[in-house]
Design goal:
Four copies of one chain form a homotetramer. In chain A, the strands form two sheets. Chain A has an eight-stranded parallel beta barrel, surrounded by seven helices. In chain A, strands 1-2 form a two-stranded antiparallel sheet. Chain A is α/β, with parallel strands linked by helices. In chain A, helix 2 links the parallel strand 4 and strand 5. Chain A has a single domain, classed as TIM Barrel. The two termini of chain A are 32 Å apart. Chain A is built from nine helices and ten strands.
Chain lengths: 274, 274, 274, 274
């Protein structure tokens, strides 16, 4: 890979230590491994409030939740839209957690930015330059998810597009790549996490929920991500996973989230982080 | 695959023959195998005019060319924008060829629709629902390219999204999928072309230029696509490929385009088409 | 790709035209597109005799059939073994068709060579150097199938191993590669067929049966292979596909085989072959 | 996945705890995370002796090294053959380390079994049933590497083949799978490691050297494997990696191996192992 292709994102070992992106009180890219948790979709005030409390109880410092949902089928639940954004803001304020949520198109960015503390660019949109630029212009931290079949170089070029547009607060998120084996929804690329930490100064988090698509594999792959050097985890958790309107198979229960967080901290300490 | 997932796009053998999408005088999905040709990017009046004449000389009935270019690197040529659209319209009118060009974001669609005869949704955007809906609403025929790692079912669900939005004039374009082998830029999925012709009533064209990324492989894969049942070919051709500002390695010269068209017609006749 | 890595297999345009491998009366790599047909597995004298007659009736000039079957599960039918070889020899002699069948391990090669006119190395074994050398040493023509996830360069290096061992009669067989989409069993790489014809002087045939795994897609992909430049087709056909002990979903009936052969000849003529 | 397809390999939670495979004093599948280390290829007495001492110094309890090397190119170094086996035996005896090495074909198995304490089946051979059966019959523990594009189900069916042949001492080795991104040699499938631990009672080790192909990524992915639940690591290490006759880019130096082993133990303890 030619680091000259992404001069802003490239790690220049002598002159630039890792970038820390501050989202609320969470310092992504610092010593602490950050936990981002919340439901796949915002469904109701009760659901979101319970999910946020569970997140906080587990030690998460950022709340995630989808208001505009990118779905493969036009017949699937598409999210609550602005109502979902308002719920995120209200529940985030109640619980003291900053919120990150996804924008699906450039015209939506100002609306999302009015409610959120950080904006997510989803895997389906990693290649969509106009959205990258619109999110960059919103001035909030950006959580950029790797395209499901994007190479590491393409991922870094997407980050470069945001940096070049003047926004330096970019967090990369490895969320699994598509392979020939469909037993897991995707394949978590821990070698990619390790490689990104060497190739760029930007922080890197992992999303074991989308990487595996299976609840029973989330904890093991989350711990693997931390051991590989991830600066944080983004995990889907729902107060009642079985009733979830999207991604029911991969969301953790509140108890499972607490268990994950405790184990995550042990692994973090074992590799010299907190 | 469960055809009930895409009821509008599914082929119901008894009640619905193949859909024919009319673009100018070209009937995509009819007996004739249609040739869409033109440069990767619109670069100048001279370049586009020469490319359009070459396309017409080869028997192409639709002119293609990019004004807004989706690029992986923010440092690559991004296209001429509206100037490119105006050139496409002017040269299309001069040569009597309808023009198809890509829109990259919903807000761009009205502008593109003001100049074009059909709107392309590129491979990077196949999953982007807001763009699918915006293009559907423009009321023009839609050329929907398969995502570079989209399954056939995901491809059909993207088409379904457009159909559900009220636009029935959708042409599917197989343009190669991403595999482990990088000798060719992508792998042209001729089995996918054949499968799509059975799964849906929508017309299917092939793009051997992006599928291979190598000029010397374009003709063979173009003929293979026709033999597999493609209703048309979309081929990049440039008056001087070596000087092209994008995709220089895969564009055909005017002479090569004529040769391709002649061979294409022979194969089309061999399988009972014209 | 660096052709210096496979000096014996590489096409040196000025000095070496395409190699023709003679198997019985079939000249693989000549002007004529060769048809190899027969059942997946040899099951009984009646089944093989009916299959061979159907193959001959369709104009096939080589009979295929498996006696030693490479299977993923140890509980699947493993083939008739030497009894199957003897049947192949007897039925080949009756019908005047040379027979090609697979050897699974070096120690089996002399036995297979005693009955067969050409030896197949299957996709699972393309990387297995000891088997490549043992088959090379048998002195018969070799039908080398591409590994299901082998790059073109790895495929050519496997051929190089046989050539270096002193056997120049190698036929390459593209049989589909593994991708993320499981609708078809594999993805037929027609760009790979075209590329191989440029990279090497060895003849190239295609196997649309394993490439698609679906009877209804075999004909279209077979024609695509011929249009892409394949020197022949290897097709699974069974007198009663529904009763087949292996690959029941992808074998053609005798009538379908005749139809395929007729259409194949039309496409072959359209591209200047016979 | 249907566990009924591999009844012997399947984990039956109530009746069968995890299998422990004893190789020398190493109990693979027990509480301790086992370290297997050694050079890619056996090159000389001096090189192997130094590598073995480094392995022992790092706490490795099994010595690995290739005598018969499976190579893609026939022009690459193919290993020292029986001379390499004899060196492995001698150095293993000197250092008190049991040795594991690969057999490439059935006829080689008795020879390898005469020198080795466990036999490896390489990634290229995972699908080769005759070799699986021959190695099973040797009566030694088997280290079965996952095929580079084998699904988890295919991997388990290969293990089933060995178990069905009467040898229950099978260790599975995840060594990275082939994807569209070539920055790393393969993609280590940590979700696969976690899934295998749930699907089968057999022990699972990871090979971060082949998974990444890059020395600078070996430690991070090794730790990730342990965190994901691997029962051991198999790591390539060479007294002077730069001079290695194969895999020079991915072998660790003695100092790096010690560092890896120390960090491995910390992560193992953090997840409740030793």
């Amino acid at each position: 890979m030619n680091a000259a292709a992404f001069p802003l994102a490239a790690r220049e070992a002598e002159t630039k230590s890792g970038t820390v992106v501050q989202i609320g009180e969470a310092a992504v890219g610092g010593t602490e491994v950050v936990l981002v948790a919340g439901p796949c979709s915002v469904e109701s005030p009760e659901q979101l409030r319970a999910a946020a409390r569970a997140a906080r109880a587990a030690g998460a410092t950022i709340l995630r939740g989808g208001a505009f949902k990118p779905r493969t089928s036009p017949y699937s639940f598409q999210g609550l839209g602005e109502e979902g954004l308002a719920l995120l803001r209200a529940v985030g304020d109640e619980t003291g957690l900053p919120v990150v949520t996804e924008a699906l198109e450039p015209a939506q960015v100002p609306l999302v930015a009015a409610y959120a503390d950080a904006i997510q660019i989803g895997s389906r949109n990693m290649h969509v330059t106009p959205l990258l630029r619109a999110v960059a212009a919103a001035g909030l931290p950006v959580l950029l998810k790797r395209g499901m079949s994007a190479t590491l170089e393409e991922f870094l070029l997407a980050a470069e597009t945001i940096l070049l547009a003047g926004n330096e607060r970019v967090v990369l998120c490895e969320r699994g790549i598509r392979t020939f084996d469909s037993y897991t929804r995707n394949c978590l690329d821990v070698g990619g996490i390790a490689a990104l930490k060497q190739l760029t100064h930007l922080p890197v988090v992992a999303d074991p929920s989308h990487a595996t698509g299976r609840r029973e594999l989330v904890v093991a792959t989350a711990l693997a991500s931390v051991a590989a050097g991830a600066d944080g985890l983004m995990v889907e958790a729902h107060p009642d996973p079985a009733s979830a309107r999207s991604d029911a198979d991969q969301q953790l229960s509140p108890e499972e989230l607490v268990d994950l967080a405790e184990r995550m901290r042990k692994v973090a300490r074992a590799i010299g982080r907190s």
